[in-house]
Design goal:
The protein is of the alpha/beta class. About 25% of the residues lie in helices and about 25% in strands. It contains eight helices and 13 strands.
């Protein structure tokens, strides 16, 4: 059973979905979209109290990540229940607050674009990450995430086109369906273009550090295909078309190695 809950960040208001803050049943799929606020976030219940958080939205009323606020309202412990925290890309309106989420989700794996594995991006994070008085797009947040992962001695998992990021096969008697989460992007060509764009942001020796702009087009974005039993959920992040057949949605459509089938929810 797939259910869409579209929630405002005000704890006293709901748009569509549950009329009260009730947790989904063990066998239910629940997709919650959070916003408006700062950023956007998707929270998925994939069955048997297993949850996935994609990106972050800051609740304007509490100043906290909206996904964590919602889980607390339905008496779910994010430290136990959240299995995966995914950053589709490092732009500030998608990643702000994600270090707070990861800090509370102690058992969760962290996934980000393989473009954030490059020496160019890590050099950028090193140059700007500790300059907390400087407003920079997503870099300070990513620095905090890497610090948490280093303290836990757990590396991030990197998403690239056609990679299975996580899967679950239910045990006998478990009230859930099989689940597999696949990355459909970035393509190899997109990763190269993202690295080239990031390299241009690295400050040169003696150069005054400046606010880091969001790169456009967004070559690093991670598109996710989540297959749960007979249902498929497609989350498009901010993937853009560029006119290059090796990047964007055209690269996904043309891929001969991506999972087959059509999504029932986008």
């Amino acid at each position: 059973m797939m259910q869409l809950n579209e929630k405002l960040n005000d704890s006293n208001r709901l748009l569509v979905g549950n009329s009260a803050y009730l947790p989904p049943g063990q066998e239910e799929i629940e997709v919650s979209l959070f916003g408006p606020g700062y950023g956007e976030s998707v929270l998925l219940h994939i069955g048997s109290n297993k949850w996935i958080i994609v990106d972050s939205c800051i609740d304007p009323f509490s100043g906290s990540p909206a996904s964590l606020s919602y889980l607390r309202k339905i008496n779910i412990d994010p430290g136990e229940a959240v299995k995966l925290v995914i950053a589709t890309h490092w732009h500030d309106d998608h990643i702000r607050g994600l270090s707070t989420i990861l800090k509370e989700c102690k058992l969760a794996e962290f996934v980000c674009s393989v473009a954030q594995r490059s020496k160019e991006f890590l050099t950028l994070v090193s140059a700007y990450g500790t300059r907390l008085m400087m407003e920079s797009t997503g870099v300070n947040e990513f620095y905090e995430i890497l610090t948490i992962l280093q303290q836990r001695n757990i590396p991030p998992k990197f998403a690239i086109a056609d990679r299975c990021l996580w899967q679950h096969t239910p045990q006998p008697g478990e009230q859930s369906q099989s689940c597999a989460i696949h990355a459909l992007s970035p393509s190899d060509a997109s990763v190269l273009l993202a690295q080239m764009g990031i390299s241009k942001l690295i400050p040169q020796a003696g150069e005054t550090k400046r606010r880091i702009p969001a790169l456009e087009p967004n070559h690093a974005a991670v598109v996710l295909l989540i297959k749960i039993g007979g249902d498929s959920i497609l989350l498009g992040a901010d993937l853009e078309e560029t006119g290059n057949s090796g990047t964007g949605w055209v690269a996904i459509i043309n891929s001969g190695t991506r999972p087959s089938g059509k999504a029932s929810f986008f």
